[in-house]
TrEMBL record:
GO terms for cellular component: midbody; mitochondrion; nucleoplasm. It comes from the Eukaryota. InterPro entries: Complex1_LYR_dom, Complex1_LYR_LYRM1, LYRM1. This is LYR motif containing 1. Residues 7-68 form the Complex 1 LYR protein domain. Signal peptide: none annotated. PANTHER family: LYR MOTIF-CONTAINING PROTEIN 1 (PTHR14273). Belongs to the complex I LYR family.
Length: 122
């Protein structure tokens, strides 16, 4: 991993922990705040440990983009959990004569960047 990329990843890791330290639940209740802080910390640790051995620069950039998107979305919507997408089953336009496999492929391609690793960890 290049030094610049390493510094960027470590900076993101530190910023997530700072964010968790200052996090306040929108409900204002202490137990919700504690749960959400714990979720942020556990999610960060799990994903960073899972991806610590990546060497491909494109994959590392994708992970960095996902991390920054999840931070920005969490701050904007005031929720630490990934924002779900709602696609009806078989709701994407199929290619001529193809059924379920093409729908699964289209669903995978239409998944937002901030949800790429959510299904793998959950």
């Amino acid at each position: 991993m290049a030094t610049a990329t390493r510094q960027e990843v470590l900076g993101l890791y530190r910023s997530i922990f700072r964010l968790a330290r200052k996090w306040q639940a929108t409900s204002g209740q202490m137990e919700d705040t504690i749960k959400e802080k714990q979720y942020i910390l556990n999610e960060a640790r799990t994903l960073f440990r899972k991806n610590k051995n990546l060497t491909d620069t494109d994959l590392i950039k994708q992970c960095i983009d996902e991390c920054t998107a999840r931070i920005e979305i969490g701050l904007h919507y005031k929720i630490p959990y990934p924002r779900p997408i709602h696609l009806p089953p078989m709701g994407l336009t199929p290619l001529r004569g193809r059924g379920l496999r093409s729908q699964e492929k289209l669903r995978k391609l239409s998944k937002p960047v901030y949800l790429r690793s959510h299904d793998e960890v959950s």
